[in-house]
Specification:
The chain is α/β, with parallel strands linked by helices. It folds into two domains: 248 residues, Rossmann fold (3-Layer(aba) Sandwich); 144 residues, 3-Layer(aba) Sandwich (Rossmann fold). The protein is built from twelve helices and 15 strands. A seven-stranded mixed beta sheet has the order 3-2-1-4-5-12-13, with helices on both faces. A four-stranded parallel beta sheet has the order 7-9-6-11, sandwiched between helices. Helix 1 packs parallel to helix 10.
Length: 436
């Protein structure tokens, strides 16, 4: 009997280490007797629907190895296409793709919504008599996949690198703010995280001894504008300057982004860094309109997508774990462990050591893990030492070694010629929500 093939795909926002999870899946699957050809859904589930399946098994091993230090999701693409229950034609099409290409393993790399897709697709295949194993590979810089008790998932690949980025970003911003504070005494910085505070919380890793005039406002803790004015003015009185980190989704009573200014993706999620105005800019405007109690003005910085694609700032711990969680996903698939997401757990909370396990897709799909309230300081402008203890091991201690040629990064270059894709056996298809 012919071996069953695997489709692996990615969804949602990328991360610095997502390709190393892909690499872990591919390199491990190639060694498994149970798994035949590994195909990539070109740009996620949309590529599966369009029967655009890139052969990864036949790619140059050197290029697969270079996925380790190739950030974002450009190698096989990602998407923000959500499969909803009513899209019956889409589900029918995926089943036909599985049958046409002898697919027995479906592995989806992503966050909460991606785990929902993996769960729905594989379960439907089984309900229709197809022997398909559905597996999830975790990915999210928000660190919001899993349970609040950290028993199913301790953290997700991508978070450690973005936390490291913010650690260094705040350190360097502090140097500038300290030097330029006579003219720019207040610096407002906006971190990614619509509803979840793990990314802005990482700013504290830049200053674990709390020596900087730093205030952190998480999306989980609502605040009013007068409280922020009071907090910043006190810092200006005590230190002559203040640095403020806010979640992009922070709700400030008396200062809310009007809905018409918000851009949303196909999932309905607010793309706050892409919206017409950001909460950081609104807060900065409000501070300057009210006027600071010292000379100078407030200014703001809103880092863009380099928070999630800067390989130079990637955590070596995160990179290693991303690979092994991909390896775990492939091993689960080969063992027929249907309906699970590969996970990272913490074997020893005092002396950090990761272990790789599994969690039921049904328990992590479409469920947001929030930042623990007990990790937020009573004053609401900081995080506790318990958070520092949790996050510090994830950012690592060393710089990642990135290969370079002629002064430029040497990134993976997969063969994406027409011949590298599986022959199309079915009629052309337009995904349901893409139709006009």
């Amino acid at each position: 009997m012919a071996k069953k093939n695997m489709i692996v795909a990615q969804s949602g926002g990328p991360s610095p280490v997502i390709n190393n999870t892909l690499r872990g899946i591919v390199e491990t699957a190639k060694q498994m007797d149970e798994i035949g050809t590994v195909y990539a859904g070109w740009h996620g589930i949309e590529g599966v629907l369009k029967e655009e399946l890139l052969n990864l098994t036949d790619q140059c091993p050197e290029e697969i190895a270079l996925l380790r230090t190739t950030p974002a999701a450009g190698s096989i693409g990602t998407c923000r296409y959500k499969l909803k229950d009513k899209q019956t034609e889409d589900f029918d099409r995926i089943m036909e793709i599985f049958k046409a290409h002898n697919v027995g393993y479906f592995c989806y790399i992503g966050g909460n919504d991606s785990m929902d897709t993996a769960n729905k697709v594989a379960n439907m295949a089984r309900s229709r008599g197809l022997d398909v194993v559905g597996i999830g590979g975790p990915k999210t810089i928000d660190n919001d996949v899993g349970d609040s008790e950290f028993k199913l998932v301790d953290h997700t690949p991508g978070y450690g690198s973005t936390a490291r980025y913010w650690t260094h970003y705040v350190q360097q911003s502090n140097e500038e703010n300290n030097g330029s504070c006579p003219a720019d005494p207040v610096l407002v910085m906006q971190a990614m995280g619509r509803k979840i505070g793990y990314i802005p919380a990482a700013a504290r890793l830049a200053d674990p001894k709390r020596e900087m005039p730093l205030q952190i406002y998480l999306a989980e803790r609502k605040v009013n504008i007068e409280q922020i004015f009071e907090n910043i003015n006190k810092s200006l009185k005590d230190h002559g300057r203040c640095m403020v980190v806010v979640s992009e989704g922070l709700e400030i009573e008396g200062l809310k982004i009007p809905e018409e200014f918000i851009v949303r993706d196909s999932f309905g999620h607010a793309m706050l860094s892409s919206s017409k105005i950001t909460i950081a800019q609104m807060l900065t405007n409000a501070l300057n309109e009210k006027k600071l109690p010292v000379k100078g003005a407030a200014r703001c910085n809103v880092p863009g997508t380099h928070q999630r694609n800067d390989m130079v700032y990637a955590s070596t711990v995160d990179l290693e774990e991303a690979y092994y969680v991909g390896q775990k996903a492939a091993l689960l698939a080969a063992a027929g462990e249907h309906g699970y997401m590969a996970t990272i757990l913490r074997a020893d909370k005092d002396n950090y050591r990761p272990v790789y396990d599994k969690a039921p897709l049904s328990e992590v799909a479409e469920k947001d893990r929030h930042f623990p309230s007990e990790w937020i300081s009573k004053c609401g402008t900081d995080v506790t030492d318990d958070f520092i203890k949790y996050a510090r091991p994830l950012i690592g201690d060393n710089w990642v070694s990135v290969p370079m040629i002629d002064g430029r990064l040497r990134l993976a270059k997969l063969n994406t010629s027409k011949e590298s894709f599986a022959p199309q056996k079915l009629p052309k298809y337009v995904p349901q929500t893409d139709r006009k």
